[in-house]
Amino acid sequence: MAKQKLARISITLPESTLQALDQKIVEQHYESRSQAILDMINRYLIDDLVAHDEVMVGTLTLVYDVSLKPLRSQLVDLQQQYLEQVISSLHIQLDDEKVLQVILMQGVSSDLKEISEQFIALKGMLKGHLELMDAVMPPIPQNTNKGVLS
């Protein structure tokens, strides 16, 4: 993959804003001001895509109580209900009581938010967070009708 061409810009800020930025750079462990500003711009652009209800890719991270048998069934049912949006799922047993599940999804941002809210609202869910990205996955060959055995 070809390396992206970079462009240099110059900005003028109030000194107090620059000091606040430098503090964030230290707190967030950025390597440079450029990296921090690029991250902020990317977040702004992602928020704009969400506001315009664009197709995006997202990860839904869940932590739940494994002892609740109905919850497991509800998680599977929801994933099956949203087969068009749910691409993949990974489960990791954290301890005797908790499971971490990461669900990879793709679709219109409002749909992904609504689907995520349904997962997060399930009884026994301890934590849930949706992270949307400004990317779209290529079509998955096994989801097309080509090559289906009769």
From TrEMBL:
Alphabetized UniProt keyword annotations: DNA-binding, Metal-binding, Nickel, Transcription, Transcription regulation
The record's Gene Ontology biological-process terms are:
response to nickel cation
Give the Pfam families listed for this entry.
Answer: NikR_C
Positions of the Transcription factor NikR nickel binding C-terminal domain:
57-132
Instruction: Give the coiled coil ranges.
Output: none
Gene Ontology MF: a single term? DNA binding
Determine if GTP-binding is one of this entry's keywords.
no
Superkingdom assignment: Bacteria
Signal sequence segment: none
Q: Which InterPro entries match?
A: Acetolactate_synth/TF_NikR_C (IPR027271), ACT-like_dom_sf (IPR045865), Arc_rbn_hlx_hlx (IPR013321), CopG/NikR_regulator (IPR050192), Ni_resp_reg_NikR (IPR022988), Ribbon_hlx_hlx (IPR010985), TF_NikR_Ni-bd_C (IPR014864)
User: Which family would the database say this protein is a member of?
Assistant: Belongs to the transcriptional regulatory CopG/NikR family.
The record describes the protein's role as: Transcriptional regulator.
Report the protein name in the record: Putative nickel-responsive regulator
Q: Which organism is it from?
A: Acinetobacter terrae
